[in-house]
What does this fold into?
Amino acid sequence: MAKRSGRGIWIAAPFRALVQRFAFLLLLATAIALILVGRIDRPLVERSRAFLADLAEPVLSAIAQPVSAVNAVVGWVDDILYVHEENFRLRTENARLLQWQEVARRLEQDNAALRRLLAAGPDISHNYVTGRVISDGGGSFVRSVLINIGAHDGVKKGQAAIGEGGYAGRVAEVGQRAARILLVTDLNSRLPVMLREGGHRAVLTGDNSPLPKLEYLPGHAKPALGEHVVTSGDGGQFPAGIPVGEIVASDDNTIRVRPFVDLGRLDFLRIMQFEEPRLDAEETGPLAAMPRHY
It folds into this structure.
């Protein structure tokens, strides 16, 4: 069998070499023959083409189905990736919009607080500098807050701090960029006041409670519940007429005043830059000669 197999190879080798040598010529001759047949007998060529198409149709259909399935899967994956990317973009944009919304709400609140603050105070002719409350120094023994303005902004010790509704306290300590405000309820607070209706003068004394006491009121004065208390201007540190609070009932037989300003929710404070009018040295007359009593 080995001899027969070797003889077959020896016979096929020259034929293979001959085919390889004249392959191009054979293909060229075949193409020319097909062209001539197509020119001579066109219906034959069309029938042959249709027959070959019928033979190839099952194969092409079988191949087309996986290709269509793959294309569908690719399109589905593209859609998922697009939806994921669009979802990420919308989430990012939504987070940015929520951030701006929070900023807008905060600015709206600050604007409303400043508008209410501008409505406080007895006289808009005075100069003011406005600061934000940045720290609450409240505790068992201290009632004070820290604001973000100081001597650099013209704040001086002893000036009045005006909140939403009226008097909130006075400047107790001053730095270049910050100042501490001693609130009207602090134990060390002493404020000259008077009753708006009766005009009786007194001193509003803090005792670290929410309701400071009204002391040194004349014996004949009969303050009524709800009567308003304002600054008297005695001492020349503050102008007269700044709203302070209203008289409320008390359980300890003392006269208590509820401040108009909500001292537990201070956002902004206006520092009143008030200077007491002074008479010139050259001014004469009975007013110039009168001594000042504080």
Observations:
- Residues 127-273 form a domain with the Thrombin, subunit H fold (CATH 2.40.10.340).
- DSSP finds three helices and twelve strands in the chain.
- Residues 278-294 have pLDDT under 50 and may be disordered.
